[in-house]
Design goal:
It holds the Pfam family Aldo_ket_red. It comes from Streptomyces muensis. The protein is of the alpha/beta class. The chain has ten helices and eleven strands. About 40% of the residues lie in helices and about 15% in strands. The longest helix is centred in the first third of the chain and has 16 residues, at about 30-45. The chain is globular, with a radius of gyration of 18 Å. The two termini are about 30 Å apart. About 45% of the residues are buried.
């Protein structure tokens, strides 16, 4: 049976099925706002102990909503957030922001919005190509040493980038895109396994595709589960360092996701799912 918890950084224990809060936003529509608050609160009621957010998600609005919904936080709840990106009106609407002085300001802003004295897991959302990696993670190391940050994570990195960062400071987590149908970052996952680093796959469910795959649908029927639950269960079985963070704005969908904890795949079912690829036809 796959372990149900993981110790991020070796000491911060969380349940292995977390919640990605990216889609939650404050709203002037009272009903919509209340619905998003309800999702965050229901996640905690269901036993989720890791919630992932970021400055990028509504430029702080997501962090504000989580604080409104959940503060004062339960003792076992970890709110992980990400810095390293700033809003801009040009291009894609964002820019890298890995300058050490700016990272320090971003962390202070996140602490204020989340109403925290310390961020237990702070992740660098993207490495800034204009700033040397040792300078970026070194700034986060300094913030950790000052007590503002507990553990440091990275997002969207390669094996070499992870190694370079680990030469400067302990890295507790990596958050890369990964799911049953998209395993581009398998080498990064393996590097995390070797180092005992938590691997938080974002987009852990291939939206709109899982249920269309005949093999996934077949295993779901056998396991008396939904295709979404099956692909999440596969992730939990695939590696002990994987901590999926599926997100949603629906309480029903949230409950479905968390229900993946109860799905037990046989070895034969796991092997069948492992043979499914993104290029296979339904």
């Amino acid at each position: 049976m796959a372990p149900t918890t993981f110790r991020i950084g070796g000491d911060l224990e969380v349940r292995r099925l977390g919640f990605g809060a990216m889609r939650l936003r404050p709203s002037d529509d009272e009903e919509a706002h209340a619905a998003h608050v309800a999702v965050a609160r229901r996640a905690v009621e269901l036993g989720v102990t890791l919630i992932d957010t970021a400055h990028l998600y509504g430029w702080g609005a997501n962090e504000d909503l989580l604080a409104e919904a959940l503060h004062p936080y339960p003792d076992d709840l970890v709110i992980a957030t990400k810095v390293g990106i700033r809003h801009t009106t040009a291009g894609e609407g964002w820019r890298h922001a890995g300058d050490p002085a700016d990272l320090r300001v971003q962390v202070d802003e996140a602490l204020r919005r989340l109403r925290l004295d310390r961020i237990e897991l702070l992740q660098l959302h993207r490495l800034d190509p204009a700033v040397p990696i040792p300078d970026q993670v070194g700034a986060l190391r300094d913030l950790r040493d000052e007590g503002k940050v507990g553990r440091i994570g990275l997002s969207e990195v390669t094996v070499d980038e992870l190694a370079e960062a680990r030469a400067v400071v302990e890295i507790a987590s990596v958050q890369n895109r990964y799911n049953l149908l998209d395993r581009e970052y398998e080498p990064v996952l393996k590097a995390c396994e070797a180092a005992g680093v938590a691997f938080l796959p974002w987009r852990p469910v291939a939206a709109g595709q899982s249920g269309a795959r005949a093999e996934i649908a077949a295993v779901a029927k056998e396991a008396d589960a939904t295709p979404t639950q099956v692909v999440l269960a596969w992730l939990l079985a695939h590696s002990p360092v994987i901590v999926p963070i599926p997100g949603t704005t629906s309480v029903a969908h949230l409950e479905e996701n968390v229900g993946a904890n109860a799905v037990r795949l046989t070895q034969e079912q796991y092997d069948r799912l492992s043979r499914v690829t993104a290029t296979q036809t339904p």
